[in-house]
Prior knowledge:
binds arginine, binds zinc ion, seven-stranded mixed β-sheet
Amino acid sequence: xxxxxxxxxxxxxxxxxxxxxxxxxxxxxxxxxxxxxxxxxxxxxxxxxxxxxxxxxxxxxxxxxxxxxxxxxxxxxxxxxxxxxxxxxxxxxxxxxxxxxxxxxxxxxxxxxxxxxxxxxxxxxxxxxxxxxxxxxxxxxxxxxxxxxxxxxxxxxxxxxxxxxxxxxxxxxxxxxxxxxxxxxxxxxxxxxxxxxxxxxxxxxxxxxxxxxxxxxxxxxxxxxxxxxxxxxxxxxxxxxxxxxxxxxxxxxxxxxxxxxxxxxxxxxxxxxxxxxxxxxxxxxxxxxxxxxxxxxxxxxxxxxxxxxxxxxxxxxxxxxxxxxxxxxxxxxxxxxxxxxxxxxxxxxxxxxxxxxxxxxxxxxxxxxxxxxxxxxxxxxxxxxxxxxxxxxxxxxxxxxxxxxxxxxxxxxxxxxxxxxxxxxxxxxxxxxxxxxxxxxxxxxxxxxxxxxxxxxxxxxxxxxxxxxxxxxxxxxxxxxxxxxxxxxxxxxxxxxxxxxxxxxxxxxxxxxxxxxxxxxxxxxxxxxxxxxxxxxxxxxxxxxxxxxxxxxxxxxxxxxxxxxxxxxxxxxxxxxxxxxxxxxxxxxxxxxxxxxxxxxxxxxxxxxxxxxxxxxxxxxxxxxxxxxxxxxxxxxxxxxxxxxxxxxxxxxxxxxxxxxxxxxxxxxxxxxxxxxxxxxxxxxxxxxxxxxxxxxxxxxxxxxxxxxxxxxxxxxxxxxxxxxxxxxxxxxxxxxxxxxxxxxxxxxxxxxxxxxxxxxxxxxxxxxxxxxxxxxxxxxxxxxxxxxxxxxxxxxxxxxxxxxxxxxxxxxxxxxxxxxxxxxxxxxxxxxxxxxxxxxxxxxxxxxxxxxxxxxxxxxxxxxxxxxxxxxxx
Length: 875
Ligand code: ARG
Ligand code: ZN
């Protein structure tokens, strides 16, 4: 069944309060729910009450304290219909259900992870706990009583504040939690178990003291210190930046080791995948630290954007996710280097969202239909959703944006809102008209901008023609012209941005051109000499740009654009273009990948100490093989791209050997480890220098030495990757893998790195390694992190291995999905997205990919999750 946006209608009934009582047993948990139900005004009194369920068995039912007659209701695993409803406007419904948390491998609803009871209810997991109006626009006040054996679960947590706790008979105990804020069921959470805790406090801007608690496996407490620090910084930042204060007396985070996603923003009780909480220098990389900081912030920020104001229905998912991603991006930009953060975001957007938007899984930021909502927690909803919010800020300016957001909070606090209401708040606060802009929410696909320009010396006029085109990735999708804000500068040969005396042909405010028509001819007056246009600074809109720019102009911008982001963008465009051209030449005629000038720019940046280390590291990082594939677009041969990538690394490694050696030796770790951005940048630059030295010399001796000497996981994992990817069969590599395994065999999230490094080693043979690793102790098909680290990394991060010409990589993935689907459909469906660009492959591989997917499709009992992705991918 397909759910459609236009079919939305409010529920007939509301649930004002929800009292839950859990008696926790690993295999036979009892849940008693008492709901105070209210019929919505205007709804006929005999309208049945229809509650959602999922794999539930009803163990007891009372309506207004009485057991209803046998024919007064019907119960099935996925629905409870009470036909015989009282005539009163309000009444109570008491429901008893029984669950087996230990057998719950879907990790939705109530399950046990590593001995800890925990819940995941977004999007539709609450209905796996009790029958309910499990939809985000039904807000209820929850009181939760938890009983458990004290020995099994000394810790009993739920949302809100603890109002009671105490001992019971036979070694049992209980706790009662009350959350005063009405919330939708997807924000409900319960945790019970035996965990260690780290405590701190935060004093809010109005002077209230909030207790902060992070729960982790016993013994891992020191590894939660960074997460705690990130939490306090997030709380402070949200007060300073958006005036948002925390609202309960306690804020808790629990780290669990089996979790389908990154983390979950349950009111006052966030639950996290432990890899996004736990870190120390021995076990976590700088990238892990940055992710922890961002995700802790993200979930915390949801308290206002998601919890206080939630979504009317799941079509509005980007209302909370896009906005909250935007907020966490801004937070990280303020905590770290803004340009570096922005470049990282753009790389991620292009790597994940652009291919999604160009392939069979494309959908609008606000989808209009779905058959399985879990498949819409996508890069488009999250990352493009964030870009859309960023564009609103670009269009309205900092102040207008803040005014609009303030109005949104003021108007909709305590409500379940829509995108229309969000847009309206910005319009009403600023007087702007965002009607055309709002198309960004409804039209799928990445707009293309084509630009041409010329300069007329006589009248001192610079003319730029910009055309926008939207190729709808979905047949029949709308594609009206969009409002696209293009940040720009006209860079003069004497360097610096030029001023103009007048401009016509498009609205220009400050440094932003507002495109609204299919084609604009923008004329700048008073321009003495031919400038080079630097367009889309800061990636002001999620579009692709086809500049007419010659290599020479790009090289000029890479050196002279006064905008730091613009310099990176120009270099990256230039480098990608030359790699793509090299891939188009036959192997014997390929020659060098880059021209001299491009190599020289690379090296000048590498050697320029006036730049931040992290910025230099990003500039020196070549586009990945998947990035080149995306640029080529169709008839992809991953082996050719890999060969070009290797050749390019070798060329630069040789060309810049002296500089890389100086960087590698000059940036040796000084003093003790610190995860801060500056220190991380220093490590990043040193490690990239090491990569080039290995590629240039075709020798990994230096990496072996770096592996042995590393005193932190960033350097260690980097060196191990070089060894495994460049010299897979040497004794040094085998010894290094063994040493790593010996040290971390009891640390699953660290072993995930070991799995991933091996799974991403280029070449067809890696498939055999991956198959062997599935039998390794330490691997488990039941744990999402293990599956993603091995199978996910292989299929999405190993272009030559996964796309073996014989199609065995596709067969392996589809078999793995078939196997996983019975236990955890969400994780299985997510793995399937590795096939989203299969239509761009060369014909031989394309056929193999199709066969593998058709084989999977022929299976009789696929989950709705996998079926949905598979059908759309094959269509
Ligand atoms: N709301 C969570 C977050 O973005 C993600 C939850 C996703 N859950 C799911 N079942 N798809 O922070
Ligand atoms: Zn989120």
